[in-house]
Amino acid sequence: MSTLGRIARGLGLGLVGLVLNLAALEVLPGVHLLLGPLLVLITAVLFGPLAGGLAGAVAGIRTLWLWGHPWGWLNITLEGIFVGALRRRLTPLVADACYWALSPLYFLLTYRMVEGIPLEATLVAGLKQAVNGLLAVLGLQVVLLIPHVRARLRALLPLPLADVSIGRAFGSALTLGAIIPLLVVGGAEGRERYASEVRQVDEENLHAAGVVVSEIESSLAHARHGVSRLARTLSTSLSPEGRLPGPHFLEGELDALVTYSPEVINAYVGSPQGVALAFSPRHDTEGHPLAGTDFSDRPYVREVRHSREPLVSDVFLGRGGVQGPLVVTLAPIRREEHYAGYVLAAMDLPRLRRHARAQVGDTPRRVLVADARGGIIFDSAEEGPGQVQSIRGSSLARALERVSSGGTGSYEVEPDAVTLVRIGTTRHFGMVEVPALGWRVVVEQPDTRLQHDVEQAYFGLLGTMGLATVAAVLLALGFSRIIVAPVQGVSHAATRLTAGDRTARASEAAKDAPRELSQLAETFDRMAWQISRQLEAIERTSREKDAFLSIASHELKTPLTALKAQVQILRRKVGGEHVERLDNVSRQVDRVTRLVNQLLDASQLGVEQLPLQRTRADLSEVVRRVAESLVNASPLHTLDLFTRPLVGEFDELRMEQVVHNLVSNAIKYSPTGGLIEVYTRVLPDGQAELVVADRGIGLRVEDEEQLFGRFERGNRREQTGISGIGVGLYVSREIIRRHGGRISLRPREGGGAVATVRLPLSLGSEHDDHAPHPMADGRG
């Protein structure tokens, strides 16, 4: 197939693989099972590395946006090239296994070092892709065992797949049959387990969030009750002019509020202008008095002036003796429409944070409490006062917008990272609102624990698949032995029968085999018995025919010899025009004599009675003498003769008979005339070679061996009118075989035929072993 054809098939099958990859099956979050590699490997096995690489490059495009990096795409491309390059030496499964055995270094360099994907996730991705590729190539091998598929693709199958043993076929089929159900059931179970784990995590998160909400509501209720009660007390203690009591009175009331309200960290009474008139405790951590601190810039100071009910502030950064984020509850001090100030209590957020942390314990869960504006009131994972933070615009805020109170969801901390890193930053959360305040309590935990549990299940699945594969291979070996042993017994019996052993039988080898194989062996034995009887009958008939031919030939030789002698006597006695007629009679007698001799030789060969009388002779002289005699007698033909001395142990008369048969056939099957080429030479391995070539009607490839049979002449239309009885080549081959050589006949390019004889030869020192063959120089 041309390079363009391979490119076209690679691109076409790659597009089909791309379509299959669109239906990726997610076995784990961020880990997908792809179907496209099956098309990539089919392309690589059938059309080679170029087509396989192109198919991988096209089919792998899906992974670029599926996984967010180019390394999966490059991996599929390299797999197609690697398997395609080894397809003529190894089976696809072995070639792909070799590729994946070399892949760990690739994954460490690309997934781990370049992309920063965690090692465990890199291991899962590598194992998944290896399973993906090996499963695809195993499916490919099983598909290519189907007879209908093999018949259509036979011309494209590489050698390791063209010759498949029963053991390999059983092993591939049983392994695939064991793995696919495990993979389907295991994948479904893995996804169900992951979903179950997510449900459990969501329930845990919601429960913890509900407990924290209860604590917040209880603390807020107590704090609001405290400031509200104190505000009412102070409103009744106002002077007729509407002034608040003195600092000592206020401090005593504030001390009682802080002492009996564990959810309050400090409290103060503020003037209408927002200046602290009294504080409990009195000083900050550095010993500075807190009374007189101006809080007029706080939004709650302006809000409480117009309020008649207690308020809760949004989160802000404290400065009244409390460092870090702060939330306060406050109530106005009023006598009718007169506003005299306010009472404020700061929530003890560290206490709430400790309570929230107690709900999650040592787990990786985290409690976040956000106010209505998205400010973080406290974070259970934070230590120390921290800073006021906002979740506005974050992936968590966007996820919270999609759920209502009591709902669950998930978000990714790094949504723009590659898939495996992005999935590794997934957080599952449950959210419960504090209805009176619009606060949202979020309890979240990372997906890593779930991933770890599912990955362990995936590794367990792979281990089960490995055990199933080993079991399938062992079963395949066992079954293949059960099945192959009787089949091999039939094969051995057939080989012995072909070699001439008519006692060969297969029943003994298949006596303990399954019924069908036993029936096969019994059928073979019946066939062998019938063939033996038929061969015996044929041989008996052949012997009788050979005996008849031998007797008839002997009987014919005597009158032919007498007729030849009488023709010679008459030729000497007559003259003129009668001499030519007697010469024609003499030639016809010679022709009949040769036919009788050939029949006699054929009959003697049939009964193994053709003796050889070896003497030391130069075969090239025999060739020269016979070829020149025959070609010179044919006015339409010319001879191209090239000989080298060929001295050896030959039956000169029989070799003359061989040369006569080959040269006369070349003349006879070139009825329009032409060049007859006859060459002899010594081959480098010490054999003698004789070549006779013509430019006649030629022969068909299927006739090359048939024409050496006894009484075989072929059935081509061009042979009509060409005389012969079909024993010349048969006798010639037997003579050459008894000399330890071989003879062949083949069509010649451009028309005609070439007969080649090779014989063992003991050479003298004067011979040139490397004499060039004239036909190799273009003379043929």
TrEMBL record:
Enzyme Commission numbers on file: 2.7.13.3
A single GO molecular function term of this UniProt record: kinase activity
Database matches in SUPFAM superfamilies: ATPase domain of HSP90 chaperone/DNA topoisomerase II/histidine kinase, Homodimeric domain of signal transducing histidine kinase
PROSITE patterns: HAMP, HIS_KIN
UniProt-listed InterPro entries: HAMP_dom, HATPase_C_sf, HATPase_dom, His_kinase_dom, HisK_dim/P_dom, HisK_dim/P_sf, Sig_transdc_His_kin-like_C, TCS_sensor_his_kinase
Keywords linked to the UniProt accession: Kinase, Membrane, Phosphoprotein, Transferase, Transmembrane, Transmembrane helix, Two-component regulatory system
Catalytic activities: ATP + protein L-histidine = ADP + protein N-phospho-L-histidine
The name this protein goes by in its record: histidine kinase
Source organism per UniProt: Archangium minus
